[in-house]
Specification:
The chain is an alpha+beta fold. Helices cover 45% and strands 20% of the residues.
Length: 166
């Protein structure tokens, strides 16, 4: 089930996800999941996975710097074949993430185009409710402290915003 649609997909069917019985057929399972998504507008909870390990030394250096600032952070958080490089936990509620940190490391360079890297990945994350922060490797190498300060400022803004919304 793939589409090149940029803004909207219109699905016309008399089938509902509940009409499809669970089978061993991967195709039917995918169709059932797609119909469930079309009905609810929410992705099926496939469970968040995390490897816990950054994929390269660049991400590892950022992760270690964030930890030294006193924040909890997980690496490679996601589901299915999509993951966020680093996810920072909410300082006031460690059961949820407050910020996705994307790096222009291995995942970034494996995407098929700059548009996918820069715009679509961020749109997907924001569409799922994530706040987004990107760290470019060239900026990190030039002045890691400035990048870390910007990140710290963003985390504090989000923590304050979440405190007000509660």
């Amino acid at each position: 089930l793939f589409t090149r649609a940029k803004y909207r997909v219109i699905l016309v069917t008399s089938l509902k996800a509940s009409d499809i019985r669970t089978t061993s057929s991967l195709g039917l399972k995918l169709l059932k999941d797609y119909l469930a998504y079309a009905e609810s507008g929410k992705l099926i909870d496939t469970g968040v996975r995390k490897s816990g390990m950054p994929v390269n030394s660049f991400e590892e250096s950022i992760m270690n710097a964030i930890i030294k600032k006193g924040y909890e952070v997980d690496a490679q958080v996601g589901s299915l074949n999509y993951s966020i490089d680093l996810a920072i936990k909410d300082p006031k509620d460690s059961s949820k993430y407050i910020l996705a940190v994307e790096c222009d490391g291995a995942t970034y360079h494996s995407s098929y185009s700059a548009r996918t890297n820069d715009r679509l990945r961020q749109q997907v994350l924001e569409g799922l409710g994530w706040e987004f922060f990107r760290i470019w490797s060239i900026d990190w190498r030039r002045d890691p402290q400035q990048e870390l300060d910007s990140l710290d400022k963003r985390i504090k803004e989000l923590t304050e915003k979440n405190s007000i919304n509660i």
